[in-house]
């Protein structure tokens, strides 16, 4: 692990965590959920020019091509950008080849000038959700493992997987589990399992989709005022100090930049305990959270 993720005093925008392949993933990502059209392309461009180097997309977001265009417009070389996308399962059991073909299409969307993999590549491929059942999950995973073996998916992982889903997956062990994480939804059993197994935890919705009720919580407001910071910055910092890789999302240039301004302060033990005490379990989720899928 570079500039150890768990060592808060050493964290910076350049900090990374090592994945199973040996690849370095930046500890702060940039999410593009629901970003569309020029808003998406310009947000990615702004984020990269501001210093982000980790972009998180998905087939279900319908913006992979826009992300690719934003990367191209940013002037930042593709080799310096860590790109994640996610395969979205359907409601039936596919064949391995069907899943594989969807993965190939995603790679082409990010780099449309590239004829086909393995000439192009993705840094991280995830299964977006554990639906519809165990048989399908095994097929999805085999297709991702095949892409990794061929070398154009550098690391593979999952999203929204509960402990039972992780335990049932065939080898190899996932590099990542991306789940909803913030002080009101801490999913501690999943986090513990992942950390025990060396699975890196990514935190989506780290700023609770800017829910005014959450952002106005007196506990968080008090901590933000104590450090002279904004509430979203405190929430992102909490994720980082928990050892997670947060993926804040915005299309507003000022917010994109402020969300990365989280490396010049540190939450103390009292702050962390106060934030930890806000956990509401599953009911604290602010989004789709299918970790209990059968």
From TrEMBL:
Organism domain of life: Eukaryota
Catalytic residues (positions): 61
Residue sites binding substrate per the record: 128
UniProt-annotated site: Lowers pKa of active site Tyr, residues: 86
GO molecular function, one term: oxidoreductase activity
InterPro entries for this protein: AKR, Aldo/ket_reductase_CS, NAD(P)_OxRdtase_dom_sf, NADP_OxRdtase_dom
Domain (NADP-dependent oxidoreductase): residue spans on this chain: 38-280
Pfam families in the record: Aldo_ket_red (PF00248)
Keywords: Oxidoreductase
Similarity comment text for this entry: Belongs to the aldo/keto reductase family.
Protein name: Aldo/keto reductase
Taxonomic lineage: Eukaryota, Fungi, Dikarya, Basidiomycota, Agaricomycotina
């Amino acid at each position: 692990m570079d500039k150890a993720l768990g060592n808060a005093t050493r964290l910076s925008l350049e900090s990374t965590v090592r994945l199973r392949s040996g690849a370095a993933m930046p500890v702060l990502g940039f999410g593009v959920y629901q970003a569309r059209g020029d808003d998406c392309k310009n947000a990615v461009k702004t984020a990269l020019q501001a210093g982000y180097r980790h972009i998180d997309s998905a087939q279900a977001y319908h913006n992979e091509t826009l992300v690719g265009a934003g990367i191209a417009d940013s002037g930042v070389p593709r080799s310096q950008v860590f790109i994640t996308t996610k395969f979205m399962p359907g409601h039936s059991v596919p064949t391995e080849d069907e899943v594989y073909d969807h993965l190939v299409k995603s790679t082409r969307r990010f780099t449309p000038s590239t004829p086909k993999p393995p000439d192009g590549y993705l840094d991280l491929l995830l299964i977006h959700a554990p639906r519809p059942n165990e048989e399908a999950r095994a097929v999805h995973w085999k297709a991702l493992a095949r892409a990794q073996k061929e070398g154009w998916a550098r690391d593979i992982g999952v999203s929204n997987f509960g402990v039972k889903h992780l335990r049932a997956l065939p080898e190899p062990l996932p590099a990542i589990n991306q789940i909803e994480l913030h002080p009101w939804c801490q999913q501690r059993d999943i986090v513990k399992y992942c950390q025990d197994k060396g699975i890196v935890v990514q935190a989506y919705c780290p700023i609770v989709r800017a829910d005014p009720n959450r952002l106005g919580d007196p506990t968080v407001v008090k901590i933000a005022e104590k450090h002279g910071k904004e509430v979203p910055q405190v929430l992102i910092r909490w994720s980082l100090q928990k050892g997670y890789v947060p993926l804040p999302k915005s299309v507003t240039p000022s917010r994109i930049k402020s969300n990365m301004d989280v490396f010049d302060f540190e939450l103390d033990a009292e702050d962390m305990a106060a934030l930890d005490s806000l956990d509401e379990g599953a009911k604290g989720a602010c989004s789709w959270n299918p970790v209990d899928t059968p």
